[in-house]
């Protein structure tokens, strides 16, 4: 018997731009990597069994499988569906059922690539927030100039607009996250703003700054600009969901732009082209470290349960990586105990 | 006699993180590059003459100089000064006087590296907006995947929050800018949002989308995400100043991150290190095209006069580049006539 504790995840296999054709192969990759991972595949049973058959997992094999089970659902939350509509009408959706399994204690966490707004609304409704938390936030980590350090950023798109008190709560939540996940004693908390000077920005940001600086449990270090997200000046960067979402996606856009431009340039130089076999591994390593897929996966925090959101357009390797790397990091205690 | 028209610019030499030690050498580089450029140096006379002396321009030479003159001022708008305070009390500042010269018709445009908020407030007060324009906006161009194309983005930080009608006006202003500067017949106008789907984002963004789509003179193409800023999907991207500022500075942060990481990586690979002399020119070319200094300089549009804002921390080559390249582009008609 393996002495490690089993981690059970409820997986919304219907979510994402490509749905089960991405989520099912990723799920299989993930259970192969992690023998203590048990996945409950929530979704259309027929589609799931067809996808599993393509991977040589028959219904018979599945019945005896220790790491896989199916939770059949009849509805799907579409990627462009209004969150309020999904919440009201899609009670038998793969997303909703995956969340219900967490709420009922049958799974320790839920993972979805689906509609962020709907996932946020449903998770908020099903799991409820922790005491003192008004709104859950989407949090993820980004690379910094220092290879050994990353920076947490929240909110990344769960809340369009956040008032000062919600931003303050995000600061507290981010601080706890950095303490628990990275073991930082007093994480440096910064507010994303248009400038570092105290006069900059909107009134609600200035008010949030005041509230954070008045809490002696929080190591609030002040405003930070977009250009310093990666400077390792802060451990946690707080902003509203609109700004966070734009900043995160802009990062990905720039990384892709640099990648494309460098490929073209290296092709233009004849000598470099000839030496591609030497340069290529270095370039690959660089872009791997910058690849948004590496940072795919954000957690919804502030809830009475763990919910992980993967990019809707994540490919299977990114999604699998998320399952067995990002999750291992954020809920590693289940795997190591 | 040179048949080209003379372009007179009022230069706020006191602005920026480093002030005259950057602006004066840049001014000299610029007039040497552009024989039809005349600069009025607004600032502390003693400091200006000292800086000019370092560049071998004596007061006697200056008296007879066809391209340079000094407009002595006694006050400086500090970088962290409140815009309202600067507007009320700094009537003899280099920034204010440079704007006054434009308003009085003595200069065709004003250039400053100073406090963006103060420049915006003063320019708004001194020059007034064009008919139908409520708020001026800070606009600049960014690179795209297509080397021959750039994208205009506004607002980049002049207005913290913009309601739907202001965003709509920015769309119209951006469309005119792309038509006039790039000669695009029907520029593609997009609103920066959290997603491309019509359900995403805040109410004022949805309302702005409606207003833009109802104007048949505007080729409104819908929402665009941060990741697509550089995809050449739009000619003009509209957002509020907070979001635009964060997105722009995040771009610069990512570009710096990639640059630093690539330097380290190329050093780590022994063979690549040995071949640096071959790889370096390609890398340099790449980062030159990505360097934020290349895109230094944004114009305040919507005013009855031309105001150009350079980064407060621009170095002299970036600032000089701005003077003789960015300006040549945006008000090139004065130089070519």
Keywords:
disordered C terminus, homodimer, alpha/beta, 13 helices, 337 residues, Isopropylmalate Dehydrogenase, 2 domains, 47% helix
Description:
Two copies of one chain form a homodimer. Chain A is globular. An eleven-stranded mixed sheet of chain A has the order 3-2-1-4-11-10-5-6-9-7-8, with helices on both faces. The C terminus of chain A is likely disordered. The two termini of chain A are 14 Å apart. Chain A folds into two domains: 156 residues, Isopropylmalate Dehydrogenase (3-Layer(aba) Sandwich); 153 residues, Isopropylmalate Dehydrogenase (3-Layer(aba) Sandwich), CATH 3.40.718. In chain A, 47% of the residues lie in helices and 17% in strands. Chain A contains 13 helices and eleven strands. In chain A, helix 1 packs across helix 2, helix 1 packs across helix 12 and helix 7 packs across helix 8. Chain A is of the alpha/beta class.
């Amino acid at each position: 018997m393996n002495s490690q504790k089993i981690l059970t995840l409820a997986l919304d296999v219907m979510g994402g731009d490509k749905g089960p054709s991405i989520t099912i192969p990723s799920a299989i990759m993930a259970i192969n990597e992690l023998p203590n991972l048990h996945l409950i595949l929530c979704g259309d049973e027929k589609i799931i069994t067809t996808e599993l058959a393509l991977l040589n997992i028959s219904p018979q094999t599945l019945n005896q499988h220790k790491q896989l089970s199916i939770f059949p659902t009849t509805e799907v939350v579409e990627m462009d569906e209004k969150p309020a509509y999904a919440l009201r009408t899609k009670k038998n959706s793969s997303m909703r059922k995956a969340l219900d399994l967490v709420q009922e204690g049958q799974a320790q966490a839920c993972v979805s690539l689906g509609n962020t707004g709907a996932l946020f609304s449903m998770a908020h409704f099903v799991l409820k927030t922790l005491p003192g938390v008004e709104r859950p936030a989407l949090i993820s980590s980004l690379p910094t100039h220092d290879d050994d350090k990353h920076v947490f950023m929240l909110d990344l798109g769960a809340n369009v607009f956040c008032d000062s008190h919600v931003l303050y709560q995000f600061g507290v939540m981010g601080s706890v996250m950095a303490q628990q996940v990275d073991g930082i004693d007093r994480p440096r908390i910064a507010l994303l703003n248009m400038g570092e000077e105290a006069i900059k920005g909107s009134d609600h940001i200035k008010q949030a700054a005041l509230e954070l600086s008045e809490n002696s449990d929080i190591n609030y270090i002040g405003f930070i600009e977009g250009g310093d997200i990666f400077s390792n000046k802060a451990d946690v960067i707080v902003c509203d969901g609109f700004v966070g979402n734009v900043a995160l996606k802009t990062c990905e856009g720039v990384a892709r732009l640099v990648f494309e431009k460098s490929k073209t340039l290296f092709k233009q130089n004849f000598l470099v082209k000839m030496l591609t076999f030497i340069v290529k591994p270095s370039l690959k390593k660089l872009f791997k470290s910058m690849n948004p897929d590496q940072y795919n996966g954000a957690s919804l925090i502030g809830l009475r349960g763990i919910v992980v959101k993967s990019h809707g357009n994540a490919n299977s390797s990114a999604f699998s990586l998320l399952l067995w790397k990002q999750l291992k990091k954020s809920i590693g205690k289940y795997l190591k105990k």
